[in-house]
Amino acid sequence: MQLAETIERMRELRREARGDVVLVPTMGALHAGHLSLVRRAREIGQTVVVSVFVNPTQFAPHEDLERYPRPIERDLELCEAAGVDIVFCPSVEQMYPADEAEVLVDVPSVGGDLEGASRPRFFGGVCRVVAKLFGVVVPDVACFGEKDYQQLRVIEAMTVGLCLPIRIEACGLVRDEDGLALSSRNVYLSEEERGRALSLSGALGEASRLIEGGQRDATAVEAAMRGVMEGRGVEVDYAVVREPRKLSVLQVIDIQRGPVVCLVAGRVGAVRLIDNRVVGGGM
Ligand code: PAF
């Protein structure tokens, strides 16, 4: 496994790379969810690149940039064991040189609400860093997890909108045995908070049960999801049912015509969590 700490070194390794290059962008603190992306990358390409970069531009000043976990030695060991070919782990100065013009990427409209509303800087920062990573690594394919469902849709729209010749591979969400969606932020949860956090997947289970049982009123399903989370003391940010591609608002749910996606976000103590579930076939 090769380690590239500079853009120059990454470009050198890219020039020498064999076959299709598949990028798995991460902010480190790797868990089984990331490793499932790496496994998918290994299946589809000859050269697997994992980027590890805690991107400051996607954090608002009050968010957890400083305390975001950075276990780089362990991340490197996990990458090595997973058969990664190249780890690109640049410094902030490499990615955002102080004398560089600040080039912003307009966030596609699918990023306008939900996470975009709750975290106004988030998708701007994500688009900016992902566009840079694409420019440095020049992958043929890039893997993103469906755990960050709206982020996946934003990146797909950005890639198409900027005519970037990169295929975005959507990879399924991974859950712990108890149902909690894997996230690097789960390490912040106390045992008691973890119990309450399970109400996010519980709310999605309830939504799925209602929809598959014939409930067509999106507002009723949203209220039920909110009820499950609030019942466990979660401060709900949103609990919505949307059309799964453009995330447009739905009045009526009709899974005979196509699937829907249920998306939830909430705060458990100081930890903000998101989760989602696609209901209905065909995706
Ligand atoms: O999903 C993440 O870990 C980050 O938002 C990403 C895509 C690596 C950009 O920093």
Describe the structure.
This protein is α/β, with parallel strands linked by helices and 283 residues long. The protein folds into two domains: 2-171, 3-Layer(aba) Sandwich (Rossmann fold), CATH 3.40.50.620; 184-278, 2-Layer Sandwich (Pantoate--beta-alanine Ligase, Chain: A,domain 2), CATH 3.30.1300. 37% of the residues lie in helices and 19% in strands. The chain has nine helices and nine strands. Helix 6 (122-137) crosses helix 7 (149-161) and helix 8 runs antiparallel to helix 9 (218-231). Pantoate (PAF) is lined by residues 25-27, 55, 58, 126, 129-130, 148, 151.
What topology emerges from the helices and strands here?
Blueprint: E1 2-4, H1 7-16, E2 21-26, H2 32-44, E3 47-52, H3 72-81, E4 86-88, H4 92-95, H5 115-118, H6 122-137, E5 141-145, H7 149-161, E6 167-171, H8 191-212, H9 218-231, E7 235-242, E8 260-268, E9 271-279
Parallel strand pairs: 1-4, 2-3, 2-5, 3-4, 5-6
Antiparallel strand pairs: 7-8, 8-9
Pantoate binds next to strand 2 and helix 6.
Number of strands: 9
Low-confidence stretches: none
CATH topology title of the largest domain: Rossmann fold
Question: What share of the residues does DSSP label as strand, in percent?
Answer: 15-25%
Structural class assignment: alpha/beta
